[in-house]
Amino acid sequence: MIIKKSFNVAILVGIAALVMAFSSCGEDSPENVVAVQDFKLDNYLGKWYEIARFDFKHEKNMDNVTAEYYLNDNGTVRVINRGYDFVDGKWKTSEGTAKFRGATDEGALKVSFFGPFYSGYTIIALDPFYQDALVAGKNYDYLWILSRDIEIPQETLNKYLAYAEELGFNTENLVWVEHDEY
Length: 182
Known about the structure:
globular; alpha+beta; 38% strand; 3 helices
């Protein structure tokens, strides 16, 4: 009887730990990274070109990378990432969902491409006209520079690189994305 109760308690503790881990999975950002304030989702929606990124397995060997954001009826955001894998010679598309981690006027979101697993998406710099953005992921291994065009003004790029370095990102690890004009 005592063994059975101990076993049941252990299972409940394990389940509770898993629920807590999955519910908070990837919802944060690096320690000193702060999301932009006075964020307006409507202005952020639409198509963005990836100018540079820290490489990771889901975007490895990809150029012509874009991200498109559309508002869903339930207030979440539909995310469509698309890029051309120049090694495999084919286009790849991933669809996901984003939602705010807190206040809707802060650029702190979480994104999921894999069911209940979310990862941090923190807009840390954004020009006033929503034409260029610097985005951090859940830790210092994820960083993106995005633009509404296939090029970003050099002054903005320099500002974003300096800011990212100041926050602790190693910008020497950025992969610069090529875009074909079409």
